[in-house]
Design goal:
The protein is mainly β and about 120 residues long. About 10% of the residues lie in helices and about 35% in strands. The strands form 3 sheets. It has a 5-stranded antiparallel β-sheet with strand order 3-2-1-4-7.
């Protein structure tokens, strides 16, 4: 899913804290990144290490505007880890890597500004 930048967009409807807790957002380290040749839109296939408990998961991400495969390896990123896997062409995307749209509508990854252990949960 690709959302365009709209600075006038209103906030989403209110939810309860218990609903927020259902979304499991964790930090992982990108171990590999490859061009997703079969994708309809330019994308990478990422393998992200979420630590001992969750292990390495795959994610398809439309982030080719700001990143190269080489610079992604070793980067810490946030991802939703409890959505059901989604088949995208021949790849099963297991997590949703998180980012924000810049003013041009391209995705900038969401990363911690300090080092945290792989698998750390957002709270």
């Amino acid at each position: 899913m690709h959302i365009t930048f709209d600075p006038m967009q209103e906030a989403a409807p209110s939810i309860y804290f218990e609903d927020f807790l259902k979304v499991d957002i964790r930090i992982g380290e990108i171990k590999s990144a490859e061009v997703f040749k079969e994708a309809r839109k330019p994308s990478f296939v990422l393998k992200i290490d979420f630590g001992e408990t969750l292990g390495v998961k795959k994610s398809c991400a439309q982030i080719t505007e700001h990143y190269t495969c080489e610079e992604l390896v070793g980067k810490k990123v946030a991802a939703v880890v409890n959505f059901p896997p989604r088949q995208i062409g021949p790849i099963k995307s297991e997590v949703l890597t998180l980012g924000f749209s810049d003013t041009a509508g391209t995705v900038v990854l969401f990363s911690p500004d300090k080092d945290v252990p792989n698998g750390s949960r957002l709270h």
